[in-house]
Amino acid sequence: MNTPRIRVGVIGAGFVGGALVQLLSDESRHIALLDAATASLEVVGVAVRDAQKPRAGIDPALLTTDALALANREDLDILVELVGGVEPARTYIVAALRRGVSVVTANKALMAECGTELSQIAHEHGADLFYEAAVGGGIPILRALRTSLAGERIERVMGIVNGTTNFVLSKMTSEGSDYDVALAEAQALGYAEADPTADVEAFDAAAKVQILSSLAFGTELSGEEIYREGITGVRAIDVDFARRTGYVIKLLGVAERVGEHGISRRAHPALVPVEHPLASVHGAMNAVFVEGAKSGPLMWLGQGAGGEPTATAVLGDVLHAARNRVSGRHDVPFSVDDRLQSVSAGDIKSVFYISLDVLDEPGVLASVAGIFGNHGVSIQSMEQSGFGDEARLSFVTHSALTQNVHATIDDLAKLESVDSVGACFRVIDGGAA
Ligand SMILES: NC(=O)c1ccc[n+]([C@@H]2O[C@H](COP(=O)([O-])OP(=O)(O)OC[C@H]3O[C@@H](n4cnc5c(N)ncnc54)[C@H](OP(=O)(O)O)[C@@H]3O)[C@@H](O)[C@H]2O)c1
Questions:
Q1: Domains of the chain: which residue ranges?
Q2: Given Cys at both, which of 45, 55, 287, 398 links 70, Cβ 3.0 to 4.6 Å?
């Protein structure tokens, strides 16, 4: 019997694309790849910006600078997009899908912005669109949600899905460093970009929350506004307060049910109890913690970035698409549950940690406590430390509506005796984040 041949085009040969092409041409994997794909895979072209750059393990004859021509190649079965960003990646993908070519991508920004449209085009043209590596790099979480947990009622998905911010917060925790120092170290080591905005302001984590939520709950894959708070306001003293009280500060991406048809999605820093499995995820590692109604808690941990781990997840998608191609089928995209309503962050209840710098004078505590009371936010514990004419008040509230806590903060900031509101972060407490 003739072994079917599946022709693969790869756009992008950077960290991930370069590692993928090497995995595809690794002789020691040949039998395993053949078996998984039920076909022999042939890389027919690799598109890059600069075809003259030397690239280890890639046959120079495969290189082209015309990515669109590769996407439009008549004999192509699978296009792998590993360029990043929305355009021109979207144009290449649409060109391939419209011709029935299956597409694999690791591009979270693109999927969070155009995923619904692209899934629709893929389905209409009988092609697959897979994007496992878009969340958690090498962690196979999307396929687990899509297949193994397809019949489970998921209550909450909570992840450390951005390695840069986890590296920065881990450094602050282990070394007591300030945010700026930890970020500079992350940049020097290549864990953070020169412009770290997408990571530290939680845009990247929010995009991943959107993708996770679509698979876990059936919300829209793209075009949604996800509530977002970055880590730039986390100070060494907040990390220290957390440590002394049994917590670590993590940037969490959260998607959870609220009542029967409500879904809350958000990305923000939170105090995580040290005994929680997510608290021990250090450095650039990623983890996704899933709570299912019947499965109970589950957690996936692994390399959220890096060429080879990420390429492994991409390769799994390529093999799945190849196998589908051989059997003349494609995966049907998951449907959207129209009954679901997005619950705004202000309507979510949570415990909060709040830190205030105040003038150290009589009556201040009473006026601060009065404002908490005015908004129905009750205080669970309070710590006071003095320095000169000033004092720092650190509160942990009982569970309260986020909008009430924000109104409290607004009013506290107006008090003459309050110099600054230093921190207002959620605390994971029992069921709420
Ligand atoms: N790196 C990770 O750890 C990681 C983890 C998870 C997901 N991802 C995702 O994987 C994707 C690729 O990331 P990466 O880190 O591998 O990026 P990268 O190292 O910057 O590589 C990008 C590649 O795309 C090529 N390229 C850029 N524009 C192009 C164009 N218009 N036409 C053809 N080729 C073009 C570049 O060519 P030149 O080499 O000639 O410049 C380069 O080879 C992104 O979507 C990223 O978000 C990455």
A1: 5-138+307-326, 154-302, 345-427
A2: 45
